[in-house]
Design brief:
By secondary structure, the protein is mainly α. The chain has one domain: Chorismate Mutase, subunit A (Orthogonal Bundle). The protein is globular. The mean pLDDT is 95.
Amino acid sequence: MRDELILENIRSNLIRQEETIIFSLIERAQFAKNSKIYEKRGIPIKDYDDSFMMFLLNGTEKLHSLVRRYTAPDEHPFTSGLPEPFLTPMIYEWPIRKTNININDKIMKIYINEIIQVICEKEDDGNYGSSAVNDIYALQAISKRIHYGKFVAESKFLLNQEFYSKLIKEKNKEELMNSLTDVTVEKKLLERVQLKAETYGQEPNAKNPVLKIKSEVIKEIYMKYIIPFTKEVELLYLLERLN
């Protein structure tokens, strides 16, 4: 089995991604909700009919697409109509099956309607550009982590092909989801994320440390969204695995 598909290596990768997600949420939480940046024409932009944040996100993804970011198996854009890369394509064997699975629309809705509401305290502080830039960092980090479920699913499939092939052919979603759930691993993950959030979310050596964002909030975001969405991607991937 290729190194990137060894389950322990995948878990190590996901653990490293935790810091990126936690730091990006801490950075976003220093600004207000600034709901105006998510509303269509909330901040008018000439010849553009969507939101201010989507304008910045699309522009960012266009630049990243030019340098072939979205040719990698662990990267998924939020916007469409992106330009082709001008760099020469890299030739390598994909470690997973190529699919069109992308749940970024769902991630975006949850991020704006749920996550922003619990990590940001003030309603509006006028820091629209800074808020949107940090949104982009957070969204990309969360999306990468969730869609890494494809690697998890491929690794588990290769370790027990007969078992998974049977369930896939039967379209037994319930048993597939049960096989993807490891309560012990999830419990350790949530404990680790909360500890990291407590550690990173305060000034070191402060006499009366005040958390920039409550560690319970980060833990809840993982429990309610990141873990379930990752398993959803795993399930979707497995259901297409034999195609």
